Amino acid sequence: MKKFFSAIAVLTAFAMVAVSCNDDDTKDEDIPVTEIKVTPATGSVVAGTTLTLKAEILPENATDKNVKWKSRDENVATVDEATGVVTGVTEGEAVIMALCGGKNGQAVITVTPAPIRVEKIELSKTELALFVGKTEKLTYTINPENATNQEAAWDSSDKTVATIADDGTVTALAEGTTDITLTIDEKTVTCKVTVSSPAIEGITIPYLSAIQGNTVTMTAAGFKAGDKVKIEAVAGDEYSAEADVANVTAQNATFELPAAASRDRSYKLTVLRGGVKQAEAFLHPDDQFVAIPYHLGYYLTGEDEVVPADPSMRANEEGVTRRGYMPGKIVDYNEETKEFRVWKKDAALAGFTAATLDLTYATGVTSIKPLTDLYGPLTSVNRVYVANSSLESLDMTQFPNATLLHAWGDAGSGLNKIASINFGTYTDDEHACKVTQMYLSSQSLTGTIDLRNCIALNELKLDGNQLEGINLGTANGDSSDKDRMLVVYSISAKNNKLKEIDISNCGRLRQLWLDGNKIERARLLNNALGEGYNSQRPDSWFPYMYILKNKEDFTITWATAADAEGRERHIDVEHYWYRNLSPANKNENGEKPGYDKWVNNSPVIQALKDGFTVTDWSYALEGYDGGGVKIKHTHASIDDLCPAEQDAE
């Protein structure tokens, strides 16, 4: 029995233990993880930097909350197993997983390259000086050149002094200083800008004819309040006034022209600041001016007057005197066009009063037409010197009172370019050319030079040109003949291309030199009226040809038969040629200084011996004083002279 109860007790105890165990199992049962949410689900991190991920375990009462983090590509990004801190390694994309209770959540992380930071900025200038109204662009470089952030931010510490545009252009507004700053990627550099008023340059002013009222606008930078303008007339009666500068802006200013100032003249304007000259400009009446090329204008102005700034423009004038024919104050020199400009209204007030026009060695001067375009005929000039200039033509009608013309050139110098000269056409003595002395040797004259209007000509030199003819006229006293007898005393035309010469219109000719030509035909007659000198009849000289009396005064090169190429070679000789063959020959003063020895071998005799034919006019001996008749003889040889021509006086 005792054993029975013991067995029951053991069983009972076992049962209680079993029941007790079943109660504990129910109380400690695990709640499984159903989901893991990772935030952010997607993200970006720069290589070398970190991003912290968070994991949310669902349900919230899940038994297992022990999260472990893992990266699927640790070459791109790594993650701290316990904290979820992701570190970017290199550019790419990596999946980061959160592991817990047999579940996982994940985030996709993009790793971007680490930025290249700006280490240094260099400005093109750290100090800048500008005039009011001017601009200048600042440039910069950054180091390294491939920095990631290159966005530039400009700023000015005082925008009333200068502003800065996004492209780095600084605009100066007013006098003062300001700091221009440039910031890129937290780096900053500075340029100190100083703004001042500029020197006043290149003032432009409208013509008076275009200005309504008396307000004159001067366009240029640099004017300041308080400036004054001195106003001076450049020609004619003196006029001077002073006006205040007003309405000053960065680009212009104005002044009031006094009502007393004529609008038909030019004014020189001098801008004064505290009495000190700042700039100079001209106010002109209209657009009617003559542009005078630099080289001509240089000689016309004086030594201390207008001088171009460009020294190359003055190179070939070195050592040559500037003539000062035109007052420098009426000349406006334009550096851009290299021209002197003179207004016609000013020229009319000033006039051209020089008695001499001297452009000797004025190299570069190819024409004086601009001068005559400005003043018209230069009536004050009585002497014209243009020797060794670069003139290509000459109009002597523009010098109606000139008595002397020197226009020779030095052979081989290149300063002998005159190819044509106009002496005008004879109408009457008052309007004829008055030149008495004319030197035109070694120029470039070609064709025929017409001297019929040169009724006062006394001495003529034409050596060393390319002339084929000299027109001296054919006056013979006939009322139908419009030519006027010339009173020229001496002609030298050596070394040209002359084939003919006619001096029958030269009643006083005493010297003739034609060496170096090839003369085929010559009229050595004298068509004077035979009355001797008469002041009322300048063509009434004795009809003698005195050049045949003196070997020193008459030289000529005759064409050979070969030169003439079959053309007749012929000479017409004066009325009293026979006297030149006489051993009793005398000069016009009745003297016999060896002429009787020369006449038998004179150039005409030589031509006759060389095959020329010679026609002469003479008088029959009988009745000489009583008006003997003229007889005409043509000779083909020296042996063909008639008795009258062989007879001695």
From TrEMBL:
Signal sequence coordinates: 1-22
Q: Which residues form the BIG2 domain?
A: 32-110, 117-194
User: Which InterPro entries does this chain map to?
Assistant: Big_2, Invasin/intimin_cell_adhesion, LRR_dom_sf
Keywords (A to Z) from UniProt = Signal
Protein known as: Ig-like domain (Group 2)
Q: Which organism is it from?
A: Alistipes timonensis JC136
